[in-house]
Specification:
Layout: H1 5-12, H2 32-51, H3 53-57, H4 62-82, H5 87-113, H6 119-125
Helix pairs in contact: 2-4, 2-5, 4-5
Amino acid sequence: MTIRILPWILEQEAGAFQRLDRKWRPQNLLPEPYRRSLLKDLQGRYERVFSALDEFASLDRGAIYVKLIHRMRLYVQKAKFSWRFDDLTFFQAVAGFYTDYGTLMRLLATDKARGRLDSSQVEKEG
């Protein structure tokens, strides 16, 4: 398998490392344009990572990568459901997503440093 998308994703991220249940659900802690922007950012990052799921799975720590990506999908879904009516749930989903995304990027950078993202290396092993 040729690894093409993973180095690009890593390069893109190189510089940036909310009645019935009587539950408190604060609203408007963050203005709507910022919430919408965060949601759009989550979706974009997730789509990029998901597009490379096969490449992630082919790496040594593929099971860890796949687990993180699937959990990130759940965070995106939770954020999409709660962004208009429950700011705390939205913030928790955003924080969980970025935590897993950061872990994914850290592991990917380590794999790159170990030479695991070189296409020739992967083709020889596979």
